[in-house]
Design brief:
With 306 residues, the protein is an alpha/beta fold. Strand 1 and strand 2 form a beta hairpin. The chain is elongated, with a radius of gyration of 24 Å. The two termini are 35 Å apart.
């Protein structure tokens, strides 16, 4: 598709630091209005990729467009960015810190202060409106910085490892904020190595490992890369059961776990019933994003080691 169909488009991005190719030919296309996840293990090249997409650093090869601009910095007033490195002026009050970040993106100061007060109340941090950053907990200060990245109501929001350092309560608040920004019409790109957040939030995602894009698609696409599993519990346990199950069957949680055959489980169940073992329990388990991630990254590690 032409770049005009994408909020963000990148083709063949390469970044070298010395002799090391940190990002190695990454393509990325983010539809307007989507929540898009960039997943990968630590050191995969996620942060470097995000910085190139925003124009903070320049790629050595490849090109990218952001909101239709060939130079991403030309769209900076319409972009919100939470960097991996957190940092606010410790002497500023929470409301002023948020308004200040909005002013850097062209938002009127008085409008920013009003919005900041409302956003802090909505986030359950109304008590901290006039507290100085140095008086806030690390998690609260991080959330203030997050609010500062969206106070100007950007079209495109980039969050680098936004869940890192947040307690479960603030993680829930952040998920709610991401959904609210999506409902407002923003396009959201965030990086993470925690699969649960991506599984709940992302319309599409890519997985980066070793500086290369190893997967792109929906959460369901990633899950579909792995076969479903069955967990069978017999009425009458006995060693002979193993002979009637697939080769990868192993005992687990009082029963047997195995890969679901391509032709279904019905034939196996008939054999088990005919042999007198019965069925006390049966569940079909769909692989999670975590399972797909481990497989994709594991294959990438094996490829690099070969």
């Amino acid at each position: 598709m032409p770049d005009g169909n994408w909020a963000l488009s990148a083709d063949g991005l390469v970044k070298r630091f010395g002799d090391r190719r940190v990002v190695d030919g990454i393509d990325l296309h983010v539809p307007y209005g989507a929540v898009y996840g960039v997943l990968g293990p630590n050191g995969a090249g996620k942060t470097t990729t995000l910085r190139m997409l925003l124009g903070i650093i320049e790629p050595d090869e490849g090109h990218r467009t952001l909101l239709g601009r060939a130079a991403p910095r030309d769209a900076s007033d319409q972009v919100g960015y939470l960097p991996e490195e957190r940092g606010l002026y410790p002497g500023m009050k929470a409301r002023e810190a948020i308004a200040f970040m909005g002013a850097l993106r062209g938002l009127d100061w008085s409008v920013g202060r009003k919005r900041a007060a409302v956003m802090l109340e909505q986030a359950g941090l109304g008590h901290a409106i006039d507290s100085k950053i140095r008086k806030l907990s690390k998690g609260m200060a991080q959330f203030v910085q997050l609010l500062g990245s969206v106070v100007h109501q950007p079209e495109f929001l980039v969050l680098d490892e936004p869940f890192s350092g947040l307690d479960p309560v603030n993680q829930e608040r952040l998920e709610a904020l991401i959904r609210a920004e999506r409902d407002r019409g923003a396009t959201i790109l965030f990086s993470t190595h925690v699969m649960a957040h991506a599984e709940r939030l992302c319309d599409r995602l890519c997985i980066i490992a070793g500086g290369k894009r190893r997967f792109e698609g929906t959460v369901d696409d990633a899950r579909a890369m792995l076969p479903m599993k069955a967990h069978y519990v017999p009425h009458h346990p006995a060693p002979g059961i193993a002979a009637l199950l697939p080769d990868d069957a192993h005992e687990e949680r009082g029963g047997w776990r195995f890969t679901l055959p391509a032709d279904g489980i019905e034939g196996i169940l008939v054999r088990l019933i005919d042999a007198g073992y019965g069925i006390a329990g049966l569940s079909i388990e769909r692989p999670g994003l975590h399972d797909a991630f481990v497989r994709i990254v594991g294959e990438a590690d094996a490829e690099r080691a070969a």
